[in-house]
Write a structure and sequence with these properties.
mainly beta; four-stranded antiparallel beta sheet; 1 helix
Length: 295
Amino acid sequence: VGTTNGLFSSELDLTHPRNLSSENTRLSNRHIVSLLSDQDLLWVGTEEGMNSLSETPLELFNKQSSLVENAIQAFSESSDGSIWVGTYDGLFHLSEGRESHENAEVKLEAVLRDRRIMALETQKDELWIGFWNDGVQIVNTSTGDTYFPLRDENNITPIRKILRTSEDGMCLAMQGTGLICLSQGAIIRPAQATILPTAILFEIKGGELLVGAVNRVYRYRPQEAYFKEIELNYPDLENGPVIWSMRQTNNGEILLGTQAHGLYLWPKNQVSEDAIVLNSFGNSSILRSRTIYAI
């Protein structure tokens, strides 16, 4: 669990969370922005570089040690095992030996529209890059060819998330203009989502999408054009907190990471319901006041 006060690891019930921070490990910064699980490694993106975590001590990659810029915003792993790293000052690629990073613009021979990268996703040989201020750019990692799928859209809005769906489509969370999905060359935009400050996209088992916008969550079924707000009832709050992250467990429950209120559990037997009674997750009070950016 990545928070504003370090990285926590624990058994699933979070009864005894272990805090890994810049004070008690070599973690480069306690403000965790993103996580990526890659084989035996966990990649941890912070405001001051990225770290790899395994059974051995943390290894730091930053501007001084590997040329990667410090403000890590996003990770993505392609089908060949390549790790792509989006920062607030450019795109980087982890070398085959995984010892250092290289400038991806040089590797791909491609010029990026914006150096402020907020989201990444891969689809076959394509790398989808979401920017802070200039939409989405797609780069073929084999040929270096690029194109812009939203050329006719108003792109001056941050792309907060790019999600490859189980149907091999792509959906984009756009902070100022809501949700857009692209499938087989068609652009689909739910009418109800055009003004939502969308920041989270998550696909649950069965193919439905959960769309997060500030402190609200919506259910979206692209095939049915179904888009509806889900009522979230918190055990200790009248107004729900901002939601920053989601993750579905292997047994079907959903975890919500919130701002300054820790983790909440969405029970498995209510996943398909439109009115949910959430539970505080874990018996430990350590995480309950934390902001959870990544699970």
